[in-house]
Amino acid sequence: MNKITIDVSKCVGCGKCVKDCVASALYIENGRAKLREGCIECGHCFAVCPQGAVDMPGYDKSGCVGVTPMTAVDSDTLLQAIKSRRTIRQFKKIPVEPEKTAKILEAGRYAPTGANSQNVAFTVLADKKDEFERECVKIFRAGVKVGSKFSAALKNTDITDTFFFKGAPLVIVVSGHDSVNATLASAYMEITANSMGLGVLYSGFFCACTRLNPKIRAKLGLPKGHKVVTCMIIGYPDVEYARIPPRKPLKFKTI
Ligand SMILES: Cc1cc2nc3c(=O)[nH]c(=O)nc-3n(C[C@H](O)[C@H](O)[C@H](O)COP(=O)(O)O)c2cc1C
Q: Which residue, 22, 60, 143, 202, shows the most beta carbons closer than 10 Å to its own?
């Protein structure tokens, strides 16, 4: 099956797809676009074609309508919202609506991936959430017992029964072959969750448990070769912040 198809009855040979193809996989012949090898299925030709002449068989095209540019969002408001984002560790005991979960996952699906690999997977912990938390708590309690002999921070750490997921209703584990792709997906998902009034905690501790314990990793049933990159704890915040906290001075140089 072709990765993309071009409807020659619609193509007018304008060359917009050729100009925007990252892989130089398109060319014009006899006034029509043609595909050669090298296509990474990024969909730029599909998106740019004024005639709608490009199709991508086998892809989900349900959301492929119009475009809303980022300029629709005021940049000052966006930056203030980014700065006002906080890691949330106190959650209300109310569920996240399935439509909101779907939007968060959709944001992850649309994040950029190197060479358009789209090799990021999302595991929503539902029925097994409490089971995962119980096992992680067990592992951490044992580890902290040993570690607290060497670290004051660990000595003060109380590993409660809800230490990992903080009573939040939704947990999404983001995995991939590549940390960068999965991290970017997570950031897109977090901002989308925030825009719907939801708070997010990245649980580095849960990720550590999956590295320490092969059984926990196996239980997640990740795609072959995937590692857990982030664990997103999501729910409605039960805390309000009055101001933005300070940061270290900006470090940057122009060379
Ligand atoms: C990769 C990553 C892992 C994190 N892991 C944890 C964690 O396991 N537990 C926790 O309470 N906070 C965790 N955090 C939250 C950080 O502590 C938090 O981002 C930082 O203190 C700054 O606070 P802010 O996010 O509210 O600006 C994590 C953050 C990141 C980016």
A: 202
Please give the share of the chain, as a percent, with pLDDT higher than 90. 89
Its CATH class, for the domain covering 70-235, is: alpha beta
DSSP SS3 for 187: helix
Q: How far, in Å, CA of 122 to CA of 222, rounded?
A: 9
| Domain boundaries along the sequence of the chain | 5-55, 70-235
Ligand 1 neighbours, Cβ below 6 Å, are: 86-87, 89, 201-205
**CA-based angle 209:211:217, to the nearest 5?**
80
Distance from C-alpha of 215 to C-alpha of 210, rounded to nearest angstrom:
8
**Does the model's pTM come out above 0.90?**
yes
From atom 28 of ligand 1, which residue's Cα is the shortest distance away? 202
Nearest CA to ligand 1 atom 16: 87
How many A from CA of 201 to the centre of ligand 1? 7
On whether the CB atoms of residues 137 and 163 are closer than 8 A, the answer is yes
pLDDT in tens, 55-110: 999 999 998 999 999 999 999 999 999 999 999 999 999 999 999 999 999 999 99
* Å from CA of 231 to ligand 1 middle: 11
5-55 CATH pick, 3.40.1190.10, 3.30.70.20, 3.10.120.10, 3.40.50.2000: 3.30.70.20
Per-residue pLDDT of 132-171, as tens digits, reads 999 999 998 988 778 777 777 777 888 999 999 999 999 9
Distance 62 CA to ligand 1 centre (A): 35
Q: Are strands 120-125 and 199-202 parallel, antiparallel or unpaired?
A: unpaired
Nearest of 52, 63, 65, 54 to residue 2 by alpha carbon:
54
